[in-house]
UniProtKB/TrEMBL annotation, chains A, B:
GO terms for molecular function: mycothione reductase [NAD(P)H] activity. This is Mycothione reductase. Residues 369-477 form the Pyridine nucleotide-disulphide oxidoreductase dimerisation domain. Its EC number is 1.8.1.15. It comes from the Bacteria. It is an enzyme of class 1 (oxidoreductase). The keyword Membrane does not apply. It comes from Gulosibacter bifidus. Signal peptide: none annotated.
Length: 488, 488
């Protein structure tokens, strides 16, 4: 499948505009920015991104800066809730100082990344413009440049969904602006019940804002019911969570000293100083005009890909058009986008570089997909709930281990948090794991590892040591409980 | 091998004293207290313990209560060190309140455990006396009772080592008393550089005491050199650590208002209010008089056992004498003692209960053995250092991942902490792992799991997802670094 790489000087003219030719055009400089690997050094690659910042959502407004804010917020939150542990005191996190520290670091990384992409490697060029599809291999930029790629990688991500009743503006912001506020508002209302909304609610609460979270349906509705109930109880003791509340009318004065007024379907009327709309994200396929190229997409605009990350058109995979990340999967998780980028990069190599025709494309088969919510309480989860597993016809069983049933839980004086495991009763395979409590995101990993490598629960706890009395004993006991429920 | 269980009424008289017969006598109610399993319900079992508290060191003075103190101490410590994160405030942990909370819980558990052992199961009785061996199957108690067992389990643990120059007393305490102090001393000097000494130094420092740690050789001398150096630097910024300092003379006034005066080999003279001697632990074999029974032991008094946990005499395993825990292994770790107790219980079943003669004894082959030091900074480790692996003739390589090289490390603004992995370069087997930093004890587990189940580093990081940006990305990157260094 190897062909000669497009040379620097190879240009064609179409309809009066010179078409710049590339071997690979990558749209989106988030995880897509990792595509130009050493193995592809012989290819002429364009990275296209018109983002407000270079490097994608995760780096600039998502996973990374939120956690940098959440850590100081937690130090404050932990102290607020420590009297029963014998600890007293007061602490506060300085919003402006944290913001300066976080973006002093993040923006430098983003800028250095942009500079490197612009001039760091001879085979890579950067197109810092919005693009739209002309056909499956051709893009036109906002300034009228035409770019054609032997292969395209669509990794343009997603953007915060705007609500009709609450259009974005100076006082109705999205997560893109949520960390860059000059000052922390006294009162903030967060619209949404997903991971992003819940993390920001916890974050603002930690910094001392009065938070109200309005959720049209239920908080974290895709997660296990017990996890959700515990989250609502624990988080609800910190900030005001209102499920089944939909904003039906909003009055948003330009004058920032006048309160915003929100009217809910329930009749509730709220006054607030700032609104964060975190009510889902929209794949950016519409901004790229992918419909012109005829790519298959879900109703919400997500591109449909095959196991090799190739985009489908009329149900058939296009050989040289790949997609990855939020625009191509439902997870909206950076670790998933990164993995897909590795699959795409390898398949680009096999398609454009490999000298043998015998190299099959690699498939993306990695599972399970864990997610973490870095709120307080923290949540981590992967796979099926018991209900989902049984609905799928599996003879599944669920076991639970409370933090409070372990020595570490005693140290925490924990009364609320737990881990659950869903297993195939016959085989002992781990089908799902659901944890709420301190360190959930890291406690999940031995279970991810076991599930990914098909290690059944039988023998798993007793086949390794678990240092006493670390928090991992929660997982050890969970696995022992599971083994008890499994046959053979 | 099954025989009829000794009946309640079966007594024999020797040398005038009635000998009480048991199927199993367990000496030590720490991990040994778990020996009476449902599988052994048909056996007449005596649990013997003369400990100050019922349930062993871990529950009453060790692993569990220390962590219950360390958690509030850390909340305070974290806040002291949070200005660079944008968090300011003050906090303090109330020693008396924490002590009351911890021992209110622990002592109840201990007392309930004792009551259950005394009267909770018809086949188990409790002997709350000191015992000494008469012969390999016979014990005499302090009050003159003679106990004989068809099988014996020696799990009598270890005790703090006393120093000649600093005999234990009201102002020179061991770890047994270190958490039960009425009030926290203003100044405390800790003698020792091991895990116990280092955890207590961190704990007292967190509560606000002025801590000096005197170490005859080096702190945590069995650990990786980089880990040790980082610990000394990080801990040394919190409290006064003096390595290569041996106390050669001590003046200890009875009057608690007069300072204790310690003179070191270096010429240093210290004044302090309390001394904690945490300078190693001594197996309790001497208190049992095991030499009368002729059991093989190490120079330090540790009993020698075979792979089935059977005690050796003149190099030969005794068929019905088992040992476990600190008296029989060098680790002094609760999770090891618990595992050995499970091996012993199963071998008792096979020896005394099983109806088939064909059941071979089970062996204790579980590895690797992880340890954790719950100080701040926290340490977790298992297996070989690079030096140890190379000294063993293995083509080993070491890789390192700094916390600061991951997004979670950015959130922590971490500049000091890291994980190291020692791997067999040819096979990719994990030979050792060494972590210093927040959450080290739980971050270690995926590596323990991989090592225990012989999963090589090749494919390990990329064969599973690691939720971004959790701290586990430190381990993911460590494994990727390792894979780069391995052949094939």
């Amino acid at each position: 499948m190897s062909e000669t790489a497009a040379s620097e000087t190879e240009l064609s003219f179409e309809a009066g505009a010179p078409t710049e030719l590339f071997d690979v055009i990558v749209i989106g400089a988030g995880s897509g920015n990792s595509i130009p690997s050493p193995e592809l050094a012989g290819l002429k690659i364009a990275i296209v991104d018109d983002g407000r910042w270079f490097g994608g959502t995760c780096l600039n407004a998502g996973c990374i800066p939120t956690k940098m804010f959440i850590h100081p917020a937690r130090l404050v939150s932990h102290l607020r809730d420590a009297a029963h542990l014998g600890v007293t005191g007061t602490a506060s996190a300085d919003w402006a100082a944290v913001r300066a520290r976080v973006f002093g670091r993040i923006d430098s990384i983003s800028q250095a990344g942009e500079q490197y992409r612009a001039s760091g490697e001879p085979n890579v060029s950067l197109v810092r413009e919005r693009v739209r599809f002309v056909d499956e291999s051709t893009l036109v930029t906002a300034s009228g440049r035409r770019l054609r790629g032997r292969a395209l990688v669509i990794g343009a991500g997603s953007r915060p969904r705007e609500l009709r009743v609450l259009p974005f503006g100076p006082r109705v912001i999205s997560s893109d602006d949520a960390l860059r506020l000059e000052t922390l508002p006294e009162r903030i209302t967060i619209i949404g019940g997903g991971v992003v909304a819940s993390e920001f609610a916890s974050l603002y609460h930690g910094f001392g804002a009065k938070v109200t979270q309005l959720v049209r349906s239920t908080v974290l509705s895709s997660l296990d019911a017990d996890i959700r109930a515990t989250f609502v109880a624990q988080a609800g003791a910190q900030w005001d969570i209102r499920e089944h509340h939909d904003v039906v009318d909003a009055t948003i004065p330009d004058d920032a000293t006048s309160p915003i007024r929100l009217v809910c379907n329930t009749g509730d009327v709220l006054e607030t100083d700032l609104v964060l709309v975190a009510s889902g994200r929209v794949p950016n396929s519409d901004r790229l005009g992918t419909e012109v190229a005829g790519f298959d997409q879900e109703l919400n605009g997500r591109l449909v890909v095959d196991a090799h990350q190739r985009v489908l058109r009329a149900g058939q995979a296009l050989p040289n058009v790949f997609a990855m990340g939020d625009i191509a999967n439902p997870h909206q998780l950076k670790h998933v986008a990164n993995h897909e980028a590795r699959v795409v990069a390898e398949n680009l190599r096999r398609t454009l570089v490999a000298t043998s025709d015998n190299e099959e494309l690699v498939s993306n088969t990695l599972s399970p997909v864990p997610l973490a919510v870095f709120s307080t309480p923290e949540i981590a989860s992967f796979g099926a709930t018991l209900t989902e597993a049984r609905d799928a016809g599996i003879d599944a069983v669920e076991v639970r281990q409370d933090y409070g049933g372990t020595a570490w839980g005693w140290a925490l004086e924990d009364q609320h948090h737990f881990a659950k495991l869903v297993v195939d009763r016959v085989q002992g395979q781990i089908l799902g794991a659901h944890i709420i409590g301190p360190d959930a995101a890291i406690l999940l990993q031995p279970l991810v590892q076991a599930a990914a490598f098909n290690m059944p629960v039988q023998g798993l706890a007793r086949g390794q040591y678990w240092p006493h009395p670390a928090a991992t004993e929660i997982i050890e006991n969970l696995l022992l409980n599971a083994k008890e429920e499994c046959n053979a």
